[in-house]
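STRUCTURE:
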C-alpha cells in the first residue's frame, strides 16, 4: 500500500530527531562503521513536519504568494518578509476566458475557503490606502486639471456613489459629476450605458479608487465598453482620446495575446497620450495584449510591503503572478534594442507597481463584493502608473510615453531585484538588477522617470579601411553629463541607429578582430545626427591542436571549444582525429573553454596568447570520476535501480529473507513510499508501510572482479528510520561471500546520507561481494539508491564512430540505433549536430571491446546493411552507415477516363521500386468528389461552414467527401438530440438529413460499407446499447443487433469489413470507465467480445491501420487522461503496448488517414506537457510502422468535446469552448472503407524487390454510376518505406447515353422570387392513369434552389412533385427528351 505523506509523517516524526526527509534539508553524513554523525543537527522534527503539512494543505485553486524570503538590506539588518495570502479572481477574471475577448486582471484577497474577504465596517486590516501609495512611491502633490481615463467593459451603475464612499473614508476631496471631477460615458461618448456586470463593477471600483489614491486632484473619465470584445473596447479607447484624456489606463487584456492584435494596435498608438495596460495575472509566458503593444506602457506587478529595515520604509519583490514574456506578434521596439531581454520581439513589462493582493489595496464596491475588500492584480498597477504619468505632466506631443523610462535610463526608479514569476531561469521571469520581465525597469521613485526627456538619434555606418561594411560591430555612446550608456549593433550593411537623451557623448566602436574606433558628438532635443566610423582589421593566426582523453584511453575526443568574445560561435574537433583549428587576431590573450560532447568529462579552461605566428595548443580531458559516465569507463558494479520493480532484482543481485513469507527488499518507484534519497526507482525494506510486520532481509551483490582497481570504494544513498530493535548494516566479503566484515552498522540513530566508504582491502581482489542487511518492524524502514562498488576505471577497448545516412538520397539519419550484433548493450543512437558545420547530422559514437565485430543499424522503415569493423585498443574506428529502404516511383501522375455510362475502361499504373531494399505496397480507394490533396503538403487547417447549431459530442463520420454529424447535445438543450446533418463540400453548406431513431449523444461512430454506424451513447433516459446505421443513399436509419453491453463515450474503428468498439463508460464517465472491446460482423449482424483493452477508459481515439486496430489516449476520471497507445491484431489474445502519445488527452477528433492515427485537439490531463488541465489545439499522428509520434499543424482553436468518429479528420463543434465552427486538415480527410464503386484495381497488395517494376491494372466502370457527370477518387499508395507517396487522382467523366435526357429547374418563392433551398423534389416515373411506376427519385434543392436529374426517356411520363416546409406543394407531369434538357422551374406559394 502507499502511505499518504501526512500519515507517514505522523508515524515517524516522533523518532525524526533532526531529520527533515521531505523538506529539502540535509542530515549530516555518518562515518563508516560508527553510530555518531560527523556534525550535530538540532532542527526540530515537528517544524519540518509542519512545513510539509502546511504545503500539503494549500488548495490547488488558491494561489500562495512567492515563498517567504528574508533579505539583507544595505543597513545590514534583516528585512521584513513579504506577506502571504490566498486570493481568488474577481468575476471578470475567469480561469478560462473565451477566445478573442478581454478579461480584467484583478484578484481579491481570500480566506481559507477561497472566498473574497470583505467588510462593511471599513477597510480590511493592513489594506493599503492613499497615504501608503504616496509614501511608498514618493509621489508629489499635483495633477489638478489632468484627466485620467479608465477603460472598462460593461456597466457599473453605482460607480460614482462607491467612489464617494472611498474618497470620504480617506479624507480625499469629492470627485463627482456635479463638480466636474468625474464623468462617465458609454463607449461612444454618450449615456447609453451597458447593463451592470458584478465582476466588471469590481474592476471599475479598483480602477477609480487607485486613481484617487495616486492622484487625488486628477479628474476621472470612466468609459464603459459595450462588451468584452476587443472591437468594442477599442471604440472606448478612441472615445477617451477624443474626449481629451492624455492618460489612459487599460486594466484588461487578452491572455497570451491574439494573432489578430495587430489589426487593433493603431487604436493604442496615439503620440502624446500615455497608454498604460496591465501585463496580466498569469505569470511568465502568458503576457497580455494590449500591454504587448510597443506604444503602450506595460505595467508589471510587485509585492509591496512595509519594511522598517529599508531606508525607503518599504520593500518590493516581483509578484509571482505578474505577466511577462516575449510577444509572439509585436516587433522589438527601438527603445528595447540595447537591453538583454532574451526576446527577438517586444519584451514585457516596462515599469511596475504594487499588484499582489497579499499586500493589496483597499477598494469599496457596494455590489456583489459587499463593501470593502482587498484587491490586487496588474489591474491595480495600471491605473496607479497612469495616474503617476498625470502627476509628471502632459506628455510631449508627437512622442511615445512608453519610451520615457527607457530614455531616463532607469533613473528615478526603485530597482526591484528579488522575486520570480516562473521557472525560466532568465531575466524574463526572475527579478534582478536593471530590466527584468516581471517588473520591467522597476517601480517609480517619484514621477521624474515618467516625464519626457529631451532626446535625439544618432545613425551611421561602420566600415573597414577598405570601405567594406562591418556587421556585428558594437557602437556604444556614453553620456558625459548623465552617464547614460546606449548600445547598438550594426546590421549586414554595417548600419546602426541609436535613440539617445540629449547630451554630449563619447563614442566607442568595437568588433572582434578589429582595432577599436572612437569619436565624440553632441545631441540636442529633436536632432537626428549622422556619424560614420572606420576600423582597421587585425591580422589573425591559427590556434590549433587536438583534444584527447586524459584518464587512460588517450583516444581523440569529439569536443566543443568556445573562445570568449569570438563571434564565430563554437569550434568543434574532428571526432575521428580530435583535431581543431581556429583563426584568432594576433596580439591578444584568449580564454578557451573545452568540453567533450560525450558526457562524463571535466571541462577545461585555458588562456592562450596569440603573437605573430600560429599557436599549437593540445588538450587532454579528464574523466569525472564521480559521475563515471564517459564511454569506456565504469565501476565494477553500478546499480541505480532504473526499471527495477517488485521483488525481483536484476544484474546478478539477489535478495534473501529469513522468513520466506515476508516481503523483504522490494524495488519501488514511489508507489509504496517516496524516494527520500534522490528520484526514480530505488530499493526499499519498509515495515512502516506493511502494517509493521517484521523484516529480516539481505540484498546481496554478485561476485565482482576488482583485479585492476587499486582504489575501490563502496558508495550509496541511504535512509534508515529505526524503531525498537531494528538494525541496518553494510558488509564486505573478499572470498565470494564465505566470510564477511562490517562496513557500517546502525541501530538507534537516524540515517539520511550519501555514503562513500574506501575499500583498500578489496583492491586487486577478484571475488568481492557487498551486502545490505535490514531487520526491524513497527515504524522502521530502510531505503537504498545509487549503489556503486569500485572506482572509475578504463575498460579494455576502443571507440566506434561514424555518420548514418540514407542510401537512396544521402541525407543524414538521426535516431538510428547502431549496436554490436553480439552485445546489444554496446550501442549508440545517431543524433543531430546542428552547431557543427563540419560534421553531418546522424553522428554516433559507442564503446566496444577490442577485435572484429559485426554491427546492425536499426530505424523503422529501413533495413541495415552488413556492417563490420575492427576495434583497436584506445583508438577510434570509423564506421559510416548507409541504411537501405524501398522507394516507390509511380509512372502516372493522374488517370482520366471519359466514357458513356455503361462502358468500361482499362488502364495500367506502373510502379517501380527505385530504392535499395524491398518495398510493400498497399492500394486503396477514396472517393473525393473534389480534387485530392497530397497529405505531405498539408499547410494547415482550413475553416468550413459552421455547423447549424451549437452541438457537442455528436457522432461524426466522413464518407465520399462529405461530413455526417448525427445526434449530440445541443447547447440550448439539457438532453441529447436526434437531429442530424451532412456537409457537402460542393455546396459548402450543411443541410439536415433524417433524424436518428432516438436522441443519442457520445455514441461511437464509424462508416462501414457505406453506412454511418452509431453504437451506444447516452439517450433519454440512460445509457444505450443500440446499434443504428444511417444509409446516405436512401437517407434512412435502420436498427441492427444491440451491443452486448450498455456504454457511452466508447470509440469505434473499422478494419477488414468489421466494426470495432473499445472502452466507454457504464453509467458515468469519470466514475466507471470499462475495458470491454467488441467486434461487429455485418454479414452475421452479430457482435463478439474481444480481449479487454489494457486500461479502463473512455473517449479514446482508434483506427484500423495496416491490419491492426490502433488506439491512443482516453479519459479515466477527474482531470486525469492517459497517453497510452495500444494495438490489436484480429485473432490475437491480447493488446500490445506501443509508444505513448506525447501528452495525456481524450475527447479529441481523430482519424486513420494515410496509414497513421491522427489526434486533434481534446482535453489534456494533469501532468500533461501541453498544460496542467484543459483543452489543447495540438494535432499529432502515430505511425505504427515506426512506432513514433510526430506533430501536424495545430487547430485554429483549443477545444474538446466536439463531434467524434472514425475516419476523416474534422473538428465539428465543441463543448469547451462552445463553438459551431468546423475545420478540416487537407490531405487527412479520407480514410478506410470509402471505396469508389466505379473504380477497382487488379492488385491491392504487392511486394517489389529493389529495381523491380509491376503494372497494376485499373478498371474504371461507368456502368456503376447512376448519373452522368464528373466523378473523382484517389488511389492511395501506402508503403512500408520512409517516404511519402502522393495519392493517384482518378477522374471519370461519365456521359449520358443517347436515350437519356436531363430534367432540371429552380425552385423559388412565389412572392419574393428568392430560391428555396432544401426543397423536396420527387420524380415519379412511368406514370399511368395517375399511378406511379416502381421507380421514383427523391431530390433536394441546393442553396440556389437548383435540382437536376438525368433519366432514360423510357421512364416517361414523369410526375414531378415539389414541396417545402411552409409552402403549398406543386405538381406537374413532364417528359424528358433524349439528348436535351427539360427545364421545369417551380414557384412555391406560401401556405
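SEQUENCE:
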Amino acid at each position: 500500500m502507499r502511505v499518504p505523506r501526512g500519515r507517514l509523517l505522523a508515524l515517524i516524526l516522533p523518532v525524526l530527531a533532526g531529520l527533515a526527509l521531505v523538506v529539502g534539508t540535509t542530515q549530516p553524513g555518518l562515518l563508516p562503521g560508527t553510530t555518531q554523525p560527523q556534525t550535530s543537527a538540532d532542527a526540530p522534527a515537528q517544524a519540518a513536519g509542519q512545513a510539509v503539512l502546511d504545503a500539503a494543505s494549500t488548495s490547488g485553486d488558491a494561489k500562495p504568494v512567492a515563498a517567504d524570503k528574508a533579505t539583507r538590506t544595505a543597513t545590514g539588518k534583516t528585512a521584513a518578509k513579504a506577506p502571504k495570502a490566498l486570493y481568488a479572481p474577481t468575476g471578470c477574471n475567469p480561469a478560462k476566458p473565451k477566445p478573442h475577448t478581454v478579461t480584467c486582471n484583478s484578484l481579491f484577497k481570500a480566506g481559507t475557503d477561497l472566498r473574497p474577504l470583505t467588510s462593511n465596517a471599513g477597510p480590511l486590516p493592513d489594506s493599503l490606502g492613499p497615504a501608503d501609495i504616496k509614501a511608498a512611491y514618493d509621489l508629489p502633490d499635483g495633477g489638478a486639471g489632468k484627466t485620467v481615463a479608465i477603460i472598462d467593459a460593461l456597466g457599473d451603475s453605482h460607480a460614482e456613489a462607491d467612489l464617494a464612499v472611498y474618497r470620504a473614508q480617506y479624507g480625499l476631496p469629492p470627485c463627482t459629476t456635479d463638480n466636474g471631477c468625474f464623468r462617465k460615458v458609454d463607449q461612444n461618448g454618450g449615456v447609453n450605458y451597458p447593463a451592470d456586470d458584478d465582476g466588471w463593477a469590481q474592476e471599475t471600483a479598483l480602477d477609480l479608487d487607485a486613481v484617487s489614491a495616486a492622484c487625488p486632484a486628477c479628474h476621472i473619465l470612466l468609459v464603459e465598453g459595450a462588451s468584452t470584445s476587443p472591437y468594442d473596447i477599442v471604440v472606448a479607447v478612441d472615445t477617451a482620446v477624443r474626449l481629451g484624456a492624455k492618460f489612459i489606463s487599460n486594466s484588461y487584456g487578452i491572455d497570451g495575446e491574439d494573432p489578430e492584435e495587430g489589426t487593433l494596435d493603431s487604436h493604442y498608438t496615439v503620440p502624446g497620450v500615455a497608454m498604460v495596460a496591465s501585463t496580466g495575472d498569469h505569470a511568465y509566458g502568458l503576457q497580455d495584449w494590449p500591454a504587448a503593444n510597443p506604444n503602450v506602457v506595460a505595467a508589471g506587478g510587485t509585492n509591496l510591503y512595509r519594511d522598517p529595515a529599508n531606508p525607503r520604509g518599504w520593500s518590493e519583490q516581483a509578484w509571482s503572478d505578474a505577466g511577462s514574456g516575449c510577444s509572439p506578434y509585436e516587433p522589438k521596439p527601438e527603445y528595447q534594442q540595447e537591453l538583454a531581454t532574451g526576446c527577438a520581439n517586444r519584451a514585457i513589462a516596462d515599469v511596475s507597481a504594487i499588484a499582489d493582493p497579499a499586500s493589496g489595496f483597499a477598494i469599496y464596491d457596494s455590489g456583489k463584493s459587499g463593501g470593502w475588500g482587498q484587491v490586487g492584480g496588474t489591474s491595480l498597477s495600471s491605473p496607479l502608473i497612469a495616474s503617476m504619468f498625470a502627476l509628471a505632466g502632459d506628455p510631449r506631443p508627437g512622442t511615445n510615453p512608453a519610451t520615457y523610462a527607457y530614455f531616463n535610463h532607469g533613473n528615478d526608479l526603485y530597482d526591484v531585484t528579488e522575486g520570480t514569476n516562473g521557472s525560466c531561469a532568465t531575466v524574463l521571469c526572475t527579478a534582478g538588477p536593471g530590466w527584468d520581465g516581471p517588473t520591467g525597469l522597476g517601480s517609480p521613485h517619484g514621477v521624474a522617470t515618467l516625464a519626457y526627456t529631451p532626446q535625439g538619434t544618432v545613425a551611421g555606418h561602420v566600415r573597414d579601411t577598405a570601405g567594406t561594411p562591418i556587421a556585428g560591430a558594437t557602437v556604444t555612446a556614453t553620456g558625459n553629463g548623465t552617464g547614460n550608456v546606449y548600445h547598438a549593433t550594426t546590421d549586414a550593411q554595417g548600419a546602426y541607429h541609436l535613440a539617445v537623451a540629449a547630451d554630449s557623448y563619447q563614442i566607442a566602436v568595437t568588433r572582434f578582430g578589429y582595432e577599436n574606433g572612437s569619436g565624440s558628438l553632441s545631441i540636442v532635443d529633436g536632432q537626428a545626427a549622422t556619424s560614420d566610423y572606420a576600423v582597421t582589421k587585425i591580422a589573425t593566426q591559427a590556434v590549433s591542436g587536438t583534444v584527447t582523453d586524459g584518464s587512460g584511453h588517450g583516444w581523440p575526443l569529439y569536443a566543443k571549444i568556445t573562445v570568449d568574445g569570438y563571434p564565430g560561435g563554437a569550434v568543434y574537433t574532428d571526432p575521428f582525429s580530435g583535431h581543431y583549428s581556429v583563426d584568432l587576431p594576433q596580439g591578444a590573450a584568449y580564454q578557451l573553454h573545452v568540453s567533450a560532447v560525450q558526457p562524463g568529462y571535466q571541462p577545461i579552461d585555458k588562456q592562450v596568447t596569440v603573437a605573430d605566428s600560429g599557436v599549437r595548443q593540445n588538450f587532454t580531458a579528464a574523466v569525472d570520476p564521480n559521475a563515471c559516465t564517459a564511454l569506456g569507463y565504469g565501476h565494477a558494479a553500478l546499480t541505480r535501480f532504473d526499471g527495477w520493480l517488485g521483488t525481483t532484482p536484476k544484474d546478478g543481485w539477489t535478495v534473501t529473507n529469513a522468513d520466506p513469507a515476508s516481503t523483504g527488499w522490494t524495488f519501488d518507484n514511489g508507489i509504496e513510499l517516496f524516494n527520500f534519497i534522490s528520484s526514480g526507482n530505488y530499493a526499499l525494506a519498509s515495515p512502516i508501510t506493511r502494517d509493521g510486520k517484521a523484516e529480516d532481509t539481505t540484498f546481496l551483490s554478485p561476485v565482482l572482479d576488482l583485479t585492476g582497481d587499486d582504489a575501490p570504494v563502496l558508495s550509496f544513498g541511504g535512509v534508515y528510520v529505526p524503531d525498537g530493535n531494528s538494525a541496518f548494516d553494510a558488509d564486505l566479503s573478499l572470498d565470494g561471500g564465505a566470510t564477511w566484515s562490517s562496513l557500517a552498522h546502525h541501530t538507534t540513530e537516524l540515517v539520511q546520507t550519501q555514503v562513500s566508504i574506501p575499500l583498500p582491502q578489496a583492491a586487486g581482489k577478484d571475488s568481492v561481494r557487498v551486502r545490505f542487511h535490514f531487520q526491524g518492524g513497527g515504524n522502521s524502514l530502510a531505503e537504498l539508491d545509487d549503489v556503486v562498488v569500485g572506482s572509475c576505471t578504463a575498460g579494455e577497448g576502443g571507440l566506434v564512430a561514424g555518420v548514418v545516412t540514407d542510401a537512396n538520397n544521402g541525407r543524414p539519419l538521426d535516431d538510428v540505433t547502431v549496436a554490436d550484433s553480439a552485445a546489444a548493450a554496446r550501442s549508440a543512437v545517431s543524433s543531430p549536430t546542428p552547431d557543427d558545420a563540419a560534421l553531418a547530422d546522424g553522428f554516433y559514437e559507442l564503446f566496444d571491446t577490442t577485435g572484429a565485430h559485426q554491427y546492425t543499424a536499426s530505424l523503422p522503415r529501413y533495413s541495415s546493411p552488413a556492417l563490420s569493423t575492427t576495434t583497436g585498443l584506445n583508438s577510434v574506428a570509423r564506421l559510416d552507415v548507409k541504411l537501405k529502404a524501398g522507394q516507390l516511383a509511380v509512372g502516372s501522375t493522374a488517370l482520366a477516363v471519359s466514357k458513356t455510362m455503361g462502358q468500361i475502361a482499362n488502364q495500367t499504373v506502373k510502379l517501380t521500386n527505385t530504392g535499395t531494399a524491398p518495398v510493400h505496397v498497399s492500394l486503396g480507394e477514396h472517393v473525393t468528389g473534389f480534387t485530392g490533396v497530397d497529405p505531405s503538403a498539408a499547410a494547415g487547417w482550413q475553416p468550413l461552414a459552421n455547423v447549424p447549431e451549437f452541438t457537442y459530442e455528436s457522432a461524426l463520420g466522413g464518407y465520399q467527401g462529405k461530413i455526417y454529424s448525427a445526434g449530440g447535445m445541443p447547447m440550448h438543450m439539457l438532453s441529447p438530440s436526434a437531429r442530424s446533418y451532412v456537409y457537402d463540400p460542393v455546396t459548402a453548406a450543411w443541410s439536415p438529413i433524417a433524424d436518428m431513431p432516438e436522441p443519442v449523444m457520445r455514441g461511437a461512430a464509424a462508416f462501414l460499407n457505406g453506412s454511418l454506424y452509431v453504437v451506444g451513447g447516452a439517450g433519454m433516459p440512460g445509457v444505450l446499447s443500440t446499434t443504428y446505421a444511417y444509409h446516405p443513399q436512401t437517407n434512412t436509419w435502420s436498427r441492427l443487433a444491440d451491443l452486448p453491453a450498455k456504454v457511452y463515450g466508447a470509440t469505434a474503428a473499422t478494419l477488414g469489413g468489421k466494426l470495432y468498439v473499445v472502452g466507454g463508460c457504464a453509467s458515468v464517465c469519470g466514475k466507471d470507465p470499462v475495458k470491454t472491446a467488441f467486434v461487429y460482423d455485418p454479414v452475421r449482424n452479430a457482435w463478439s467480445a474481444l480481449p479487454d483493452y489494457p486500461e479502463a477508459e473512455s473517449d479514446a481515439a482508434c483506427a484500423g491501420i495496416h491490419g491492426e486496430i490502433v488506439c491512443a489516449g482516453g479519459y479515466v476520471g477527474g482531470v486525469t487522461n492517459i497517453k497510452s497507445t495500444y494495438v490489436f491484431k484480429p485473432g490475437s489474445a491480447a493488446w500490445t503496448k506501443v509508444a505513448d502519445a506525447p501528452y495525456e488527452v481524450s475527447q479529441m477528433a481523430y482519424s486513420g488517414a494515410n496509414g497513421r492515427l491522427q489526434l486533434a485537439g481534446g482535453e489534456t490531463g494533469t501532468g500533461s506537457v501541453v498544460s496542467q488541465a484543459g483543452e489543447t489545439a495540438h494535432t499529432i499522428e502515430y505511425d505504427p510502422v515506426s512506432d513514433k509520434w510526430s506533430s501536424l499543424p495545430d487547430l485554429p482553436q483549443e477545444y474538446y468535446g466536439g463531434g467524434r468518429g472514425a475516419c476523416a479528420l474534422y473538428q465539428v463543434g465543441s463543448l469547451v469552448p462552445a463553438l459551431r465552427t468546423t475545420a478540416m486538415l487537407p490531405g487527412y480527410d479520407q480514410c478506410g472503407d470509402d471505396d469508389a464503386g466505379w473504380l477497382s484495381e487488379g492488385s491491392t497488395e504487392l511486394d517489389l524487390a529493389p529495381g523491380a517494376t509491376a503494372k497494376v491494372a485499373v478498371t474504371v466502370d461507368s456502368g456503376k454510376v447512376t448519373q452522368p457527370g464528373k466523378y473523382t477518387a484517389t488511389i492511395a499508395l501506402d508503403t512500408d518505406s520512409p517516404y511519402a507517396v502522393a495519392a493517384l487522382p482518378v477522374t471519370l467523366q461519365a456521359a449520358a447515353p443517347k436515350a437519356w435526357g436531363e430534367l432540371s429547374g429552380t425552385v423559388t418563392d412565389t412572392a419574393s422570387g428568392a430560391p428555396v433551398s432544401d426543397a423536396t423534389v420527387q420524380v415519379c416515373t412511368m406514370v399511368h392513369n395517375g399511378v406511379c411506376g416502381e421507380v421514383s427519385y427523391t431530390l433536394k434543392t441546393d442553396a440556389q434552389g437548383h435540382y437536376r436529374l438525368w433519366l432514360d426517356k423510357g421512364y416517361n411520363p414523369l410526375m414531378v412533385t415539389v414541396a417545402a416546409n411552409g409552402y403549398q406543394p406543386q405538381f406537374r407531369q413532364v417528359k424528358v427528351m433524349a439528348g436535351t434538357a427539360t427545364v421545369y422551374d417551380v414557384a412555391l406559394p406560401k401556405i
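REMARK: The chain has eight helices and 104 strands.
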